[in-house]
Amino acid sequence: TDIGSQKDRVVAEEEWLRKWETGSIWFHKERGHPLLQKYLDVLLNGRSGLRIFFPLCGKAVEMKWLADMGHSVVGVEVSEKALKEFFAEHSLPYCEEPVPEISGAKKLETTSGNIALYCCNIYDLSSSIVGKFDGVWDRGALVAVNPCDRQRYVSLMITLMEKNSSYLLVTVSYDPNKHKGPPFYVPESEIKSLFG
Q1: Where in the cell does this protein reside (predicted)?
Q2: Of 182, 177, 137, which is closest to residue 161 (Cα–Cα)?
Q3: What is the pLDDT of residues 165-175, one digit of tens each?
Q4: Which residues have a Cβ under 8 Å from the Cβ of 89 and sit 6 or more positions away?
Q5: What does the alpha-carbon distance between residue 147 and residue 72 come to, in Å, rounded to a whole number?
Q6: 3-state SS string over 12-60?
């Protein structure tokens, strides 16, 4: 698999935090993603009341959309600013509490309890902290993690999935020698070898 010059590219956590602080969040979508709407039936598979995970969630509007449908949403994001903007933009009251298992981490949860967002590094999470999920909406996480961390990321995601879980993944296709990423190019062959 040739991912060109991206193979060794590393984006530090500070760079992501800076993007949120400066508002250079070109990756955020103000409206729900059309592919989630198109493939929602695949994610839900006729089921209701699911636990759905949003890795590297930012302030994705789809979290509220799915919660309003009766699902329980859990997200993780390194930027506290992103998470607080999510609650403010949707006028959702929330409580904030520390996550004892993760030094410096916080959990921001709606008072209704249907949306819980963890402010921490995704690799600090585990199923013992957040439980397991019936569905995953990965709109911009796999393409955002550093190429050298993909196996680590996918291994974590697999431990967070229930047996009959649905995983919706959005990637981008382009010549990786012409763009340094993120979003990073993840060829289909690599997706298949990562997830099995």
Answers
A1: Cytoplasm
A2: 137
A3: 999 999 988 88
A4: 59
A5: 30
A6: CHHHHHHHHHHCCCCCCCCCCCHHHHHCHHHHHCCCCCCEEEECCCCCC
